[in-house]
Amino acid sequence: MQTPPPPQMPLDDRLKWVESMARLLDNQFKVPGTNFRFGVDPVLNFIPVVGSLSSFAMSGVMVMTMARHGASGALVVRMLFNILLDAVVGAIPVLGWIFDFGFKANQRNVELLRHHYIHGKYQGRGTGFVVGVLLVFLVLFGLVLYGIWQLVAFGWDWVSTAF
């Protein structure tokens, strides 16, 4: 017999403002006639640099608060990954704006914290996750360097044969 999923339990009273802030940033407004919700975060990102930085700062403060109230190292790493992904992809004009309306990093982080509290998930330090992300970053960085090297070599060959 399967147990029903636990109800959406509110977080600790000390973290209610985190839940409220996540709702404001990601789900505060509803498009009439649809189930689509969005918050202040994607709207802020229409303001170049300042909007992205302010949204990233608010998300960072929320993660720090959650870390102070019992989030494990592994959980904090996952949360930081969510807000970094939101900030990096959100900085790309047009594509990032569309991404921001769908990827709700703050709401995801609150859900991660709920799972951590209710089910005891995401225990540990998160070292494996960090190492994995760094390896992917290093491989991508190497590919970019190789691409630049090939582009420079092509340009050098083109210039040297032209003259």
TrEMBL record:
Stated name of the protein: DUF4112 domain-containing protein
InterPro entries for this protein: DUF4112 (IPR025187)
UniProt-listed PANTHER family: MEMBRANE PROTEINS, PH DOMAIN PROTEIN
Pfam (any one): DUF4112
Keyword Flavoprotein recorded: no
Superkingdom of origin: Bacteria
Cytoplasm keyword on record: no
Segments traversing the membrane: 46-67, 79-99, 129-149
Keywords: Membrane, Transmembrane, Transmembrane helix
